[in-house]
Amino acid sequence: MTDLPIPSALTIHQILGLEPGPKLVVFGAVHGNETCGTVAIRRVVQELEQGALSVERGTLTLVPVVNPLAYQLKRRHGDRNLNRNMCVTNNSQDFEDRLSNVICPLLEAHDVLLDLHSFHTPGIPFALLGPQNNSDRLEPFSKAEEEEALALHLGVDRFVEGWLETYGQGVRDRQARGAEAHVDYGVGTTETIRRYGGIGITLECGQHDEDVAPQVAYRAIRAALAHLGMAAAERQPLPPSQPEVIRLYKVLDRLHPDDRLCRDWRSFEEIKQGDVLAVRHDGAELTADQNGWIVFPNPAAQVDQEWFYLAKRSNRLRLC
Q1: Same domain membership, residue 281 and residue 208
Q2: 47, 133 in Cβ contact below 8 A?
Q3: Does residue 234 belong to any structural domain of this protein?
Q4: Do the strands 57-63 and 19-27 form a parallel or antiparallel pair, or are they unpaired?
Q5: Which domain does 202 fall in, by range?
Q6: d(C-alpha 254, C-alpha 250), whole Å
Q7: Which region, left, alpha or beta, applies to residue 64 given φ > 0 means left and ψ of -120 to 50 means alpha?
Q8: In this predicted structure, what is the pLDDT of residue 276?
Q9: Is the pLDDT score of 105 beyond 60?
Q10: Confidence of residue 239 (pLDDT cuts 50, 70, 90)
Q11: Does the residue 243 lie in any domain?
Q12: pLDDT tens digits for range 121-144
């Protein structure tokens, strides 16, 4: 830990247009070592203060550092991962519980969330989408078309779906082997705003330390303002001519400290059926069951936590 005092407040910038319109909230540093959103949001704040950018319709709320403890510690989390098990609680157990009690009402008060992240291994930026319209218990949703339209105008070509459904299966796998887990552990910022009736996009802007990541984040904020009609002078990017849509379908947990990836996989590296991906501590090999991609490989994953995901090409027709 650090000798600095534990943060006791969030810094929030809010701009109210004089005409009615959407309520957009933009998050940076939900994970404290993912600072591209922080840099981009502070750039937008400066432009608003200098008059280089103006909001004419609706409400723009900017939160450059959503998890100030993790940001202060320069790591992914404070006491725990804020982007899991997000809910309001009367029995706060840690710093992230206290944060959730502030963030959840903030999300409830908005229509749209743009959550800016980055990733550990090299790769290209992508947007994480919610589910297609459905009435299932896990993640009921009725605004898929609105969410897709926003995602298509954020300046990226790759789109990923299937997060909570895949995570839910991972939770059931943990429960089957006796590990403590709950399906709502997979609920983060975007899942929360969808439960409140809004839409949300997680934009993974690039590798943590790449100079391009803050640029991707900045352009996405400006593009969201244009798409939502909040800043009339803004010009939104054209949708990609050949979007790449990928579906997560399986999560593999690390079960022992000596479990190891068979090499330094890059996120979204293509894999072929039968490729050996990882080796358990007892020598058992984990192989790809079909052609696709390995996603979010984490060689430092904790035991009984997600280690890597498998993904395949999606048939989401509105995007393909």
Answers
A1: no
A2: no
A3: no
A4: parallel
A5: 13-227
A6: 13
A7: alpha
A8: 98
A9: yes
A10: confident
A11: no
A12: 788 999 999 999 999 888 899 999
